[in-house]
Design a protein that fits this description.
With 78 residues, this protein is of the alpha+beta class. It has a single domain, classed as Ribosomal protein L28/L24 (Ribosomal Protein L24e, Chain: T, Roll), CATH 2.30.170.40. Helices cover 23% and strands 36% of the residues. It has 2 helices and 4 strands; from the N terminus they run E-E-E-E-H-H. The radius of gyration is 16 Å and the shape is elongated.
Length: 78
Amino acid sequence: MSRRCELTGKKANNAFAVSHSHRRTKRLQQANLQSKRVWWEAGNRWVRLKLSTKAIKTIASKGLEAMAKEAGINLNHY
């Protein structure tokens, strides 16, 4: 499975590591992903998702059902 948030689609970003002498080498900035069990009210069960920390905070305010609908995800498959 790729390193991507299942609700927001966040993934790694290409960047440069810049040294003191300003030499630049390529590196990846990974998204802050967490494996999380979230309670799904409509399905009346737990759902295990790989989420970014930003998505976890947004679920707290919007709710899981609304975010899954925006992302076009069917929670029955998780």
